[in-house]
Amino acid sequence: MPSLLQRYSLQCRKIKSLENKHQLDERSVRLIAVSKTRSSEEIACLYRAGQQDFGENYLQDALPKQRALTHLAIYWHFIGPIQSNKTRDVARYFQWVHSVERLKIAQRLAQQRPSFLPKLNICLQVNVDEESRKSGFLIDELEEVIEPILSLKGLKLRGLMAIPRATSKIDEQRKSFRRLAAAKSQINAKFGLQLDTLSMGMSSDLSSAIAEGATMVRVGTAIFGQRQKSVQK
Ligand SMILES: *Cc1c(COP(=O)(O)O)cnc(C)c1O
């Protein structure tokens, strides 16, 4: 069995070779190590190997780890569903939120972002395959929320995030990611913005996501191994 560091280094090399293949600048794809259910020791181990971005999607699971690791210069990314009663802690303890899927949540995050901190970076989560069971904005709904979100002082809108329908078919994976990329371009054109972030691609569809322009990939299993326990939300 490969060790944590071996799996991590394999993912870093994989990203590097995909950057090469698609003629992207080195480090144009930012790896978010998704450490949900993983220990603060594992996070610290990767940090020592050079990893600074970590993604969490259960607040209760994340907060104790953040407290244990305050001495490390980690960028914390919140990537999970956000209930209204959790926005205060998310606004305070994270640098990025990838999973903003309702205007109301954005408003609460903005209001609750402490003024002594830099603006909170956010992505709007998009239900890119229009799945009925999934939340997130439909592509058609995005345009009407852009201006209300831009008016929120505590937030910096950076781009879009999606978790497409799971499929092993490469062309289907790419089609979904391409839709997200097109939605971002369209928003930039229409609103004169320079949104720079496409948060897309996980362990099983990383290559397709990078081929379609991902700037952030969120990788859990391929780095940490299969998750055993599930956490209470
Ligand atoms: C768990 C999770 C990931 C990582 O998924 P893997 O398949 O383990 O790489 C990425 N994004 C989100 C939103 C997640 O919840």
User: Strand count, sense and closure of the main sheet?
Assistant: 8 strands, parallel
Distance between the termini: 30 Å
CATH topology: TIM Barrel
- Catalogue the unreliable spans: none
**What pattern of helices and strands is seen along the backbone?**
HEHEHEHEHEHEHEHEH
* Corresponding CATH superfamily: Alanine racemase
Instruction: Kindly give the count of domains.
Output: 1
Describe what is shown at a glance:
With 233 residues, this protein is α/β, with parallel strands linked by helices. The protein is 42% helix and 17% strand.
Structural write-up:
The protein has 9 helices and 8 strands. With 233 residues, it is α/β, with parallel strands linked by helices. The protein has one domain (4-224): Alanine racemase (TIM Barrel), CATH 3.20.20.10. It has an 8-stranded parallel sheet. The radius of gyration is 17 Å and the shape is globular. Residues 34, 36, 57, 79-80, 163, 202-204, 218-222 line the site of pyridoxal-5'-phosphate (PLP).
Present the secondary structure layout.
Elements: H1 4-21, E1 30-34, H2 40-48, E2 53-56, H3 59-68, E3 75-78, H4 87-93, E4 96-100, H5 103-112, E5 120-126, H6 139-150, E6 155-162, H7 170-191, E7 197-199, H8 206-211, E8 216-219, H9 221-224
Parallel strand pairs: 1-2, 1-8, 2-3, 3-4, 4-5, 5-6, 6-7
Helix pairs in contact: 4-5, 6-7
The structure holds pyridoxal-5'-phosphate.
Question: Which key terms come to mind for this protein?
Answer:
233 residues, alpha/beta, TIM Barrel, 8-stranded parallel sheet, 9 helices, globular, binds pyridoxal-5'-phosphate
